[in-house]
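Posting this for the archive.
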Amino acid sequence: MSAQQSNAGGGVVAAGSVPTAEIAAAILARGGNAVDAAAAACFGTAVGEPSLTSLAGGGMIIHRDGRTGKVTVCDCFANAPRLGPEGMADFDYRGVDLDFGPTTQRFCIGAGAAAVPGVIPGLCTALERWGSMDLKDVVAPACDKLREGAVMGNYQGFAIKLLGPILTDQASGRAIFEQEGRLLTEGDRFSLPQLADTLEAMAAAGWRTYYADVLGAAMLQQFGPAGGGLLAPEDLADYEVLFKEPLHLRYHGHDVYTMPAQGGAMVATMLRLLAAEPIAETPVARVRQLCDAMAVADEARTKGLGALDDFDPWAERFAGRRKEAQLRRAGAPPVNGPGNTTHLSVIDAAGNACGVTFSYGEGNAHIVADSGIMMNNLLGEEDIVPGGPAHAPKGKRLTTMMSPTMICAPDGREIVLGTGGANRIRSAIVQAVRYLVDEKRSPEQAVAAPRVHFEGGVLNAEVFAFDDRGAALEQLGAERMIRFDAPNMFFGGVHLVERLADGTLRGAGDPRRGGSLRRG
């Protein structure tokens, strides 16, 4: 671990819950750097965001070295297993309907829905590359918080109620998410001491040894062919954490870095489209620009746009849409689910920066042995694996919309941001960038500002900032418009932090998803 990766102490973190942010802040206060703090927060995310993600999911990490300015991506998203369900008599894969109020949506769980996880290898490898603290010191604040517990807020209570059919499908899940025979809810204190035991044991044994001999062995037993799943020893042994160059583009004089993956490619495409035109003068016209960019990026995705390859035809398509009278249907119908994903952003006093987005789908219902870690159901996500496990890219990385992003401004500012929200990740990121760069809003203002998402002919719009309750948006001609009178978790939870050229640190956690800001 090199000297430039250290931190004299201090920093700022924005995350999806107070406990998550407090864990990161504790590491920063002890002199840990941004990666130490981000990893610590991820290890303890379960206490503050118990239903949104787990250490048996997949993630994407973006890092900026405070001394050199180099930005690197760490891809620890999930792989598809090498095996397929063909010919399996006891394949454990079944649907669960979740109630979203006006509609229901089916997700699939069971051993057969489990993809090869990458979060623990990703976090631990990132710590080895960029961290400044030993693993046992990194996990210590998380373990304290996991044993102490925390009172669940409104958003966490809502998420647990929504996911209740999955979380309580198995006895191991009920032991964690029920108290006295009822589902946990807002105001209850939630703790997970068995996960603290797991983290301490892993730090003591060495993460590679523990992951292979304990967690990996349990995963193979529960989610391999004998348990009705697809995981094989080679899937875990050969899993590789990938360090990559980010996608890099210039947006109105700013350097923007994002993921070299499907979601990041769409973010970059939309920003390049928007940068090619003058900023519209009216709010409605700016919404029209956004919707056109979203529609063209969706069309590009369906036709195989990779990164920024062959960009010119899509720029021409964008220009063509500017002359059309109406927004036309583009892409697949939107996914209704909220996207059970979380994000955290950290910048330390030395200028090291880190953003982490990770998810376990909706959860698999099965806890890995007695670790306190719920397995993912990423093969049961239609948006990730259309058609289910039989159509997964065997032995390869699954696609992801996760797009932790960094902005480096000409005045020396650096910004880290990201969000959960499934197919709304890309639109939330792009709008946050526009608010920060084009309208020069503060982090708090950029996070609080209204958002829209256009997909499949449907315009979803937060209309609380429009005097006419969004009536003028009707003239854009979407096939359907859904109004949100207040900020809504549907549009993600953008948690962002910023370091000004003079070293001032600030940021904002998105209240749409229980966001919190803390300083170390």
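Residues 247-337+403-519 form a domain with the Glutamine Phosphoribosylpyrophosphate, subunit 1, domain 1 fold (CATH 3.60.20.40). The chain has two domains: 23-243+357-391, 247-337+403-519.
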